[in-house]
Amino acid sequence: MGLFSRFKKTTPRTDDDGDLDDELNEDDEREVGTAESDAAEAVDAADEEAETDEDEALLEKSAPFDRSEKGPFDISEDYPEHDRLDLGALKVPVVDGMQVRLDTDDDSQRVLAVTLIHEGGGIQLQAFATPRSEGLWNTVRQQLRESVSAQGGESDELHTSLGKELAIEVPAKTESGKPGKRVMRFAGIDGPRWFVRAVFSGKAVTDDEIRAELSALFRGVVVDRGEEAMAPRELIALTAPQVGGDEEEEKKDEDELNPFERGPEITEVR
Question: Could you tell me the residue ranges of all domains in the chain?
Answer without folding.
Answer: 11-59, 67-242
